[in-house]
Amino acid sequence: MNRSGCLKDKTRGNEGNPCLPGGLIPVEQWTLPEASVRRSLKDAVRHALTQLKAASRAEEPFESMDELPELSAGQQRRLAPEPDYARQAEAIACNLQHARSEGAHRRKVTCLVAPPFSGLQQALGRLSQSGQSVLNDNGAVWTVITPPETLLFSEQEAKAWWDKQDVSRPWVIPELADFWLRCLPGLVLVRELFRRIASDAVGPGIVGCSSWCWRYWEHYLEGTHMSPWTPAPLDSERLGQWLTYLASGHDRAPVIARMADDGLYVLPVAEADGTGKNKRQKKRKHSSFLRDLAGESRGNPGVALAIWQRSLRARPEEDAKPDEDDEKSGRQSRSVDCWVVPLERLSLPTLPQSKTSVMGFVLHGLLLHNGLDVASLEVVTGVPAYELSLVLSRLERAEIVRCDQVDERWHLTPIGYPTVRRHLQSWGFPVDPF
User: Fold this and answer.
1) Spans of biased composition, class Basic residues (predicted)?
2) What global pTM score does this model have?
């Protein structure tokens, strides 16, 4: 490990780091992963039918697919575990250091913007942990800035609060959405922060920000050009590499995952070329599942992982179709770690029907602020608490939102995020660009 805390990596810019596939890129370089035409058409039709309260008979024969035995908790932890955010923090620091050394990034304060569930907030929160501190390119430990208990400030109070924060040395804000509320007194703290950044009154720092929060503030402070960066989207190739890395790490054999309906391979991913074992692996017939998953999740790792976890199933080994290459060579087929339910046969959350716009305001407010408690949600939406409780209860039963039992804040779920984004866009709400 070098002076900055980065693992040595021969790959240019550490872009090959499996815990952050594609590395960091300027926001304007972000592109939506392609889904198959067949999948795109199905999504459009299904969304339209949902809004019209219609049901597709063509899906009825596939309902039994969800009856396949689910993985045990232990199997899921092994085959589809949560990311190691400490290693992701290290990869982010290394990518930023490389961008500066190459002259691609010259700003003192870096704004990192990502859609919800990308893991950015969790990773940035681990840039300074006891015993696992990641150093910045000046060799100093990052100071994590946490939000105050109240977010309603006067201008003088906001200035006094920032005066008390140690932002002269390297600092990081894991999530800017935690520092404001969408009401006049709730805007002051973030507005003062950007004033200080623009006037070069702070030391080197990183501001992590949800894409929905960022869309609001880039319009509110239109004259402030921060040139944000973002993690590269997970296309099918990067998604396959990432899921393989999560399950296999550095000391386990690659996971073998095959489609539950036709036996086509999902993992390990197909190799472009090679000899020996890699050449035989290239001949295996692979499914378009990863491409469709990348499109459904819009390249978002947290959303993709949530859908991936739900799609995995256990199934008796004798039901497996043998690998053609193994059959021809007389070799016994390798065991299958798990089976994958096709996306079109998987039960994913859908929004409850509503005749009012309250549900849209609630969901949009939660996305703008990275989750809120009921009192704060009442402030930013103007919806009475009793009505909020009814809406939140319906959304919770539909697996769209959940309540953190520790701080009593409501958040969207990663598995429910795709349908929420589609509905907010169809209802005319301003959506993020990711």
Assistant:
1) 277-288
2) 0.85
